[in-house]
Every structure is written in structure tokens, then in C-alpha cells.
Design a protein that fits this description.
This protein is an alpha+beta fold. The protein has one domain (13-261): Beta-lactamase (3-Layer(aba) Sandwich), CATH 3.40.710. The protein is built from eight helices and twelve strands. Helix 1 (42-55) crosses helix 4, helix 1 (42-55) runs antiparallel to helix 7 (180-191) and helix 2 (100-109) crosses helix 3 (113-123). The longest helix is centred in the last third of the chain and has 18 residues, at 244-261.
């Protein structure tokens, strides 16, 4: 049985890349297949936030105002709210001050869409695009804030490939996108993400972190395994056209297989 939605035609597709953080590819299938990225490209927003902290243009305790209402980037489209099913119940009430660091935390650990939009408004879409480019994720885009349906209708989307997700996490883990302090901060957030698919069966004593993404008919995950550095194992899997249980089983199986092949 398959799920279909705006971003899936219902035809099952699995793409993946298993690599080292330095770039060596160990295995791959359809690595350049284009997918709706869902929340996986929040990784690029995380990098943009880390760079703002590193540059001193933002601080972890800087207050942002909690909200689930945003202005569309399409001129004249007005405001919109996060779609009801996507509202993060763990966010404070609209109008409440919230530290920047806590907002980024919810963006990563529970994949909060309103937290992501708040971070994007703070750091700017160009900084997110630069993070993708610097990671070598040339086929990926972060074109709009979440739930901006007018922007999506105008062609602004979130796109990625398994190859790009592997490059993005590989560059992050290897410290190529930020300095040691902010790289450590980002890795700490990825370690605490609460949706574990590729990392469901990580052996005790193996370091890991991940970022997943999903909408109807789409289920992705990208993870690192092992001590951070150029030899860290990076696994990115993108699926389309599967129902949720089938997609999650696929992700778990490929994560386990990748660790076995890499001698983890």
C-alpha cells in the first residue's frame, strides 16, 4: 500500500548514498534523484544559525518572539499560519519571548516548522542558500518558509537528493562548515533528534546523530555514525511513494546494513 500526496505520485522509489564524511562513496543508488526535501534541509538552516553565532551577529540567549503566523514572501499574499497538523505543541504561546538557542533546538530535535521559520526570518534565506552551496549540495534548495503555500505555488520549494544530504552532513561532521565550537553545538543537536530511523539500531558506544523529514508519501533520513571527523560514516536515504510503516522499515534496514558494511 502506498501513500500519495502533493509531493509523491505513489510510485515507490528509494535512493541512498553511504559515504565517508571526507567524500569517499561506499555505496549508492539513484544518488541524484530529485525529491521534495521535507525537513531534511533544515540542516542548512542549522548551519546558517551556527555561522551567525560564530560571526557574533546572533547569540544563543537572544530573544525571539514565538509565533505560528508569518508573512508570505509572495508580494500581496499576506500572512499565513502554520498548518494545524504541523503546529508544535511544545512551543510557548504566541507572543512569548524565547531564546534563539531554544528555537534552533526545537527546529532540529523535534523538527518544529514554526521554530524553523523563526530561525529563517532571523538569519535570512540567502544565508541558508550559502550553507547548501558551501557543502556542495548544488541540487538542493531551501526556497521558502514552511507552510508558505503561496510561495510554493509560485515555484519556491525545498528540494534535495541523497547525494546532497550526504555531502551536507559530511561537511558538517568534518568541520568544513563552521569552527569547532559551533560544529560541536550542531552535532549535539543532531544527537538529540527524537525521530530515529536510520539510527534505530546503533550499537552501544557508537556516536551518532541524524535529521529526518517527512510529508505524505515522502520519508527521508540522513545520519552520521562514529566519532566526528573525515572518516565518519554518513548515510542518506530518500524514499517516495511508500506508506509510513514501509518507508520506516526501509530506512531502518538500510541504516543497519550500512553500519554492517562499514564494519561498525
Amino acid at each position: 500500500m502506498v501513500s500519495t500526496g502533493t509531493h509523491s505520485d505513489g510510485v515507490p522509489v528509494v535512493a541512498y548514498r553511504v559515504a565517508r564524511a571526507a567524500g569517499e562513496v561506499l555505496a549508492e543508488r539513484l544518488p541524484h534523484e530529485d525529491f521534495y526535501a521535507a525537513s531534511t534541509v533544515k540542516l542548512a538552516v542549522l548551519v546558517a544559525a551556527a555561522r551567525a553565532l560564530e560571526a557574533g551577529t546572533a547569540t544563543l540567549d537572544e530573544p525571539l518572539t514565538s509565533t505560528h503566523t508569518f508573512t508570505s514572501q509572495v508580494p500581496g499574499a499576506g500572512t499565513y499560519t502554520i498548518e494545524p497538523d504541523d503546529i508544535d505543541p511544545g512551543m510557548p504561546a504566541p507572543g512569548t519571548a524565547m531564546p534563539f538557542g531554544d528555537v534552533v533546538d526545537r527546529m532540529v530535535t523535534v523538527s518544529s516548522n514554526e521554530a524553523t521559520n523563526m530561525v529563517v526570518e532571523r538569519v535570512g534565506l540567502p544565508a541558508v542558500a550559502t550553507a547548501l552551496a558551501d557543502a556542495g549540495a548544488s541540487s538542493s534548495t531551501f526556497g521558502r518558509k514552511y507552510s508558505d503555500l503561496a510561495a510554493e505555488a509560485a515555484g519556491a520549494s525545498h528540494r534535495t537528493t541523497a547525494a546532497d544530504l550526504a555531502r551536507l552532513v559530511g561537511a558538517l561532521v568534518a568541520g568544513r562548515l563552521a569552527g569547532p565550537e559551533q560544529t560541536g553545538w550542531m552535532l549535539g543537536l543532531l544527537r538529540r533528534q527524537d525521530d530515529r530511523q536510520l539510527t534505530a539500531a546503533v550499537p552501544d558506544g557508537v556516536d551518532f546523530g541524524s535529521k529526518s523529514g517527512w510529508v505524505d508519501g515522502i520519508r527521508h533520513d540522513v545520519a552520521f555514525f562514529g566519532d566526528p571527523g573525515p572518516d565518519t560514516l554518513v548515510v542518506a536515504v530518500c524514499t517516495r511513494g511508500y506508506d509510513t510503516p514501509a518507508a520506516e522499515e526501509t530506512l531502518k534496514a538500510l541504516g543497519a546494513l550500512a553500519m554492517t558494511l562499514a564494519g561498525r
